[in-house]
Amino acid sequence: MRKLFLLLLIMTFIISILAPASFAAETDQEKIYKARMDLYSKMESLTLIPWYYYAAIDQYERSIRRVRNDIPKEEGLIGIYFKPEQWSGALNPNPDDTSPFSIGIFGGIGKDGNGDGIADLKNDEDVLYTFASHLLNYGTDEENIKIALWDYYQRDRSVELIMGKVKIYKTFGTIALDKHAFPVPLRFNYSYKNTWGDARGWGGRRIHEGTDIFAGYSTPVRATGYGIVEIKGWNKYGGWRIGIRDINNTYHYFAHLNGFAKDLKVGQVVEPGMLIGGVGSSGYGPPGTSGKFPPHLHYGMYKDNGHTEWSFDPYPHLKQWERAERQAKK
Ligand SMILES: [Zn+2]
């Protein structure tokens, strides 16, 4: 009996040593997501606006901010950016004003969200609460939130992009959506080289805006990340093609397909690895044209900064996703 007790004691001791080690496996990124989610949830209980609206607005602003040079990079957990004069009020002699009272007098939008009596542009809770207050001026339902967003951004596209993210977060119930998949299952025969920026190829625009993955007809083509189907149909150069907007505002373009996955619709939420179509050689002619070049998937990636969209090289990402999948299989 005593032996058993001793054994239990030793086991408990071992477990207590091992447990923190496994908790330590929680990455910095996971900690950030958790802390961010806490902020969104807190705001939801305060305002009755569901957390995924806050997550979507925050993520939209963060992704834009990361590709713009005219606004400072984010420092805290929340990516929403207010200009100092917007925060303190255009006529406020003190652009760094933190007094909710005088900010209010000068028509600034800055608010105190954490109850410390200070409206601090650099405090996550104050920033999120300030945006929440703007939304609350309109209402807590989707239609009113959309109007609030339009009034704030004055751009249809921004509202669409944010609402797309709302749908994605709502579907998966989490903000940890970093997983990716290689567009073609690794067990199929395929080959690709770094051809981005070459003279116009099949499906490019001015230059070759993508990577061509050569594979046989009907090789499965899969979504590479969490996102929303933005475009599906025919394009003179791209043939049958699909455009997916991911959670980071990156647009993924799949061209020259020989068909689409059954039931795939514009506006649909997709996840990495989900079948969206098959490799083909469609394009360079009226709808249905095919066979003018060898079958391949043209894969392009585009960034959006809130004003314009530009192509960047998908090759390093493809390499990385391919490697990650290979390692996960081992
Ligand atoms: Zn191509």
Automatic annotation (TrEMBL):
The keyword RNA-binding is assigned to this record: no
Signal peptide annotation: 1-24
Keyword Signal: yes
InterPro entries given in the database record: Cell_wall_metabolism_enzyme (IPR050570), Dup_hybrid_motif (IPR011055), M23ase_b-sheet_dom (IPR016047)
Domain M23ase beta-sheet core, chain residue ranges per copy: 207-306
This protein's UniProt keywords: Hydrolase, Signal
Name of the protein described by the UniProt record: Murein DD-endopeptidase MepM and murein hydrolase activator NlpD, contain LysM domain
Species per Swiss-Prot/TrEMBL record: Litchfieldia salsa
